[in-house]
C-alpha cells in the first residue's frame, strides 16, 4: 500500500552539510505531492544523525551497519519507502522549480516508463551529460586514462555520453546517471533492487539495463532540470595512473563485475511503442 505519492531517498557519506541544504531545498519547493524524506546514513560517525534530529524531526533516518556503498545504502531507503514513486537523489543535487512534479506527472501519463532522469546542469548553468549508451570493454580506458583524449577516445566518448543530440528533447535512452532518478515503485517487483555487488559506479547502468529487460522504458526527461554540484573524482587522474587511484580502482572493479555479469548476453530489446 502506498501511503505517499513520493518517497525521496538521500544517501549520506560524510556530507552532513550537503544533506541539510538538500532537505531545505526540497522543503522550499512546497511540493503538491504527499511525500516522505528518507536519509540513509553510510557514515560511521553520528554527525548526520545529530543534524537530522536537530533540524528535521519529520525526516526518516536509517543508519547502515557499515558503508557497503551506493547500491546497498539506497536499497535500505527503498525498503523503508512507502511512496508510489521513488526519487533517489545525491546530496549535491538542487531541484529547480517544479521538476519533481513534472517527472511524476510524466510517469502518471506513461505507464510503460519505469525510470526517468532530469536534465542535469552545472552550477553555472551549462549542461552535464547524464545519460549514455551501454558501455563496452573500452569504457575504463577511454573514461579514466589519457586514451580518452586521443581521436579514437574522443569519438567513443562522444557516442557513449550521447553528445551528438539535442539534450532539450525527451528521449528513451540506454541508461541514466544515478545522481537523480525517479522510479516507479511497483516496477521493482519485476526489476529488483540495485545490485549490491557494485560498491560504486555502474549500478545505475545495470539497473537501467534490467528495467529494459523487464519491458520498462528508461527516459531522459529534459523538461525537468536540476543543478548537480558534481566533482567526478574517479576521473581526476587521467594519466597512466588514472585506473589506479582509489576511485579509479573502484570504478574498474565495478566495470569488471558489470562486464562479467553480461558477458555473452545480448543487449535488451528497447520497445518504444
What does this structure look like?
The chain is of the alpha/beta class and 273 residues long. The protein has one domain: Alpha-Beta Complex (Spore Coat Polysaccharide Biosynthesis Protein SpsA, Chain A). Helices cover 33% and strands 23% of the residues. It is built from nine helices and twelve strands. The protein has helices at residues 16-28, 47-55, 70-80, 99-109, 139-144, 151-160, 188-191, 203-213, 246-261, and strands at residues 4-12, 35-41, 60-63, 83-89, 93-95, 113-121, 127-128, 131-132, 171-172, 175-176, 180-184, 217-228. Strands 1, 2, 3, 4, 5, 6, 7, 9, 11 and 12 form a ten-stranded mixed beta sheet that branches. The protein has a two-stranded antiparallel ribbon with strand order 8-10. The chain starts with a strand and ends in a 12-residue tail after the last helix.
Topology of this protein?
Blueprint: E1 4-12, H1 16-28, E2 35-41, H2 47-55, E3 60-63, H3 70-80, E4 83-89, E5 93-95, H4 99-109, E6 113-121, E7 127-128, E8 131-132, H5 139-144, H6 151-160, E9 171-172, E10 175-176, E11 180-184, H7 188-191, H8 203-213, E12 217-228, H9 246-261
Parallel strand pairs: 1-2, 1-4, 2-3, 6-12
Antiparallel strand pairs: 4-11, 5-12, 6-7, 6-11, 8-10, 9-12
> Helical content, roughly?
25-40%
The biggest sheet, with number of strands, parallel, antiparallel or mixed sense and barrel status, is: 10 strands, mixed
For the record, give the distance between the C-alpha atoms at the N and C termini, rounded to a whole number.
29 Å
Order of helices and strands: EHEHEHEEHEEEHHEEEHHEH
Can you count the helices? 9
Number of strands: 12
Q: Tell me the strand percentage band.
A: 15-25%
CATH-defined architecture: Alpha-Beta Complex
Which class best fits the helix and strand makeup?
Answer: alpha/beta
Tell me the name of the CATH class: Alpha Beta
Rg is 18 Å
